[in-house]
Amino acid sequence: MSATADVPARTTPARRRSGSWDGLILLVLALLAWQGMHLYVGEAALASPVKTLTFLAGFLRGPVFWGHFAATLAAFGWALLIGAVGGIVIGLVLGERRFAGDVAEPILAGLYAIPKVTLYPMILLIFGLGMSAKVAFGVIHGIIPIILFTMGAVKTISPVLLRAARAMRLTRRQTALEVLVPAVLPEILTGLRIGFSLTFLGVLIGEMFASQRGLGFLIVNGINLHNVPMTTGMILVIVLFALAANGLLLWLHRRFGGPSATPEHA
């Protein structure tokens, strides 16, 4: 038993080195593809990696970027909080109430398939310009996948767990917190990963249409001013932020929701 348990520990450094080399190779390939695309489309459409990084090195030293970054982060944080909490709660309720869930699922799937651009005029009329509109854009993008993942996970939960909860006379709140959430945690984390990306996308689009603050606004402003390094640099910042955040969520999924998170038997 101990010899078998020691095998992953001995192979971990090798796996880490292999992963580091894979990441380095992907980075080099991405930079080469970026440079090749720059040579193909020209300076007027896409800045080169060197020019973009040079621009960012100076732009990130000033207060302008960090003010816009803070605006995006604040709107995204509120949108993700509302979407995650609301999506999980609604998903748990609809998943536990099978009839309501069966009725709501096709409706939610239909709403999710609607192009969100058709809702922008209505959102702007309701919330106006500014933070509230950006948060609303983010929430409508991200909340439905979280609801669907959570609801689907609750529907597939073992009936034995629910019968045990009823036998122990647990309240609905206790059943949700002590039985449903731990059982569906992997699916909830998967839904949060997808909801994270879509919420971030919604906030950025909201900043492009309904704000004068944020990274999305900087992209549009760079396009309007024909400032290609700014546009390319902001896109690079957004990509790096999204990759870092998704990497963190993937680590949390593996740590708390993956197979390795289950306790080992003696």
UniProtKB/TrEMBL annotation:
Domain of life from the UniProt record: Bacteria
Annotated compartments: Cell membrane
Xref: Gene3D superfamilies: MetI-like
Keywords: Cell membrane, Membrane, Transmembrane, Transmembrane helix, Transport
Cellular component annotations (GO), alphabetically ordered: plasma membrane
InterPro entries in UniProt: MetI-like, MetI-like_sf
Entry's Gene Ontology BP terms: transmembrane transport
Segments crossing the lipid bilayer: 71-95, 107-129, 135-158, 179-210, 230-252
Topological category with respect to the lipid bilayer: Multi-pass membrane protein
Residue ranges occupied by any ABC transmembrane type-1 domain in the UniProt entry: 69-249
UniProt-listed PANTHER family: ABC TRANSPORTER PERMEASE PROTEIN MJ0413-RELATED, ALKANE SULFONATE ABC TRANSPORTER-RELATED, MEMBRANE SUBUNIT
Annotated protein name in UniProt: ABC transporter permease
Naturally occurring in which organism (per UniProt): Azorhizobium oxalatiphilum
